[in-house]
């Protein structure tokens, strides 16, 4: 750890790796420090859905930049990515109404409404289930099991130093403290996802950061057709900002809660992606708190499986794995705080870090190494007291 770096990054999830990529591209020297032995956090536990189209505002800007970065990185770092778009399956007229309003908000761009027959051409939903849907052609898909790890290997091969199994215990201007020694750098980015409170409790409290725990499954299913795209449902339409801000979204939320109280209580976002080996990632539920519960309730998995059977009309599902994912959740979608000169604390504080993280990181590195410091830091951003 004797070397001096331009940038030290704490956290080797997609947000931390995104900072390392951005710094490397600008010719800077970089160290990445992570307490785990490899990429193991939210960045491998997700759907691998890069939902560009469903974002609005700041998230949309980061998502569009991230899209370009993902497209460049996939061939360079050698991981699977497909320009699949996504399909939203509408199972009721109020879901179609949200999609129609969303398409209008976008001036008809980047959203194509689908007939039930068109939905069935790409998604093997059971007969009569879809009343229509939408194709979101800009969305991408990666395999979360391999993408971030491949980026870390690529960075390593290009001269970024990784310090694995090294828990960071403190950060000061120009310095990262660990039980193995110190890492010195001109600038430090702390990208520890939901663990902001461990290093910067004042920032976590000021931004209302909590942990959101999610139940996920990997399932083998004999679908009629492979899933050509990630598949979203009406539950996704009341979650992602672009859809959730349409006039009809409130009524849809109410109807879903009245008809499916058990799913609403679990704050479900029913969606599916298929990995290159054919297995389906099925999820998810959301439970927020200071800590994610150590226990996962079987009822949640049973409900997700029942929904999967109904949607695809398949009786036979074999669960291969279950896991819990955790991400940072807060009222704002992003945290960029400057607790000290040359130190940035960065987290995506809703479940869209794979979609936006690379773009956000690129902007933070721009700001840190430009002559206009503070440009990205929102007014009132927390400072460590
Ligand atoms: C189940 C689930 C499904 C999701 N689906 C999607 C999706 O389809 N699309 C999408 O866009 N987003 C999705 N998300 C959100 C997305 O996965 C996250 O926003 C993103 O991965 C966060 O990346 P990160 O780098 O901030 O955090 P992480 O990937 O969690 O990485 C943080 C890293 O910091 C390290 N760390 C923590 N504390 C220390 C310390 N003191 N010292 C050293 N290292 C430390 C950890 O070991 C970890 O490696 C999903 C999230 C979950 C949980």
Automatic annotation (TrEMBL):
| Gene Ontology cellular component list | cytoplasm
Database matches in SUPFAM superfamilies? FAD/NAD(P)-binding domain
Describe the location of the FAD dependent oxidoreductase domain by residue ranges.
6-366
Q: Name one Pfam family in it.
A: DAO
Domain of life (superkingdom): Bacteria
The coenzyme or cofactor needed here is:
FAD
* UniProtKB keywords: Flavoprotein, Oxidoreductase
One MF term in the entry's GO annotations? oxidoreductase activity
UniProt keyword annotation of Zinc present: no
Q: Which family does it belong to?
A: Belongs to the DadA oxidoreductase family.
NCBIfam families on file: HpnW_proposed
Please report the name of this protein according to its UniProt entry.
Answer: FAD dependent oxidoreductase TIGR03364
The species this protein belongs to is Leifsonia soli
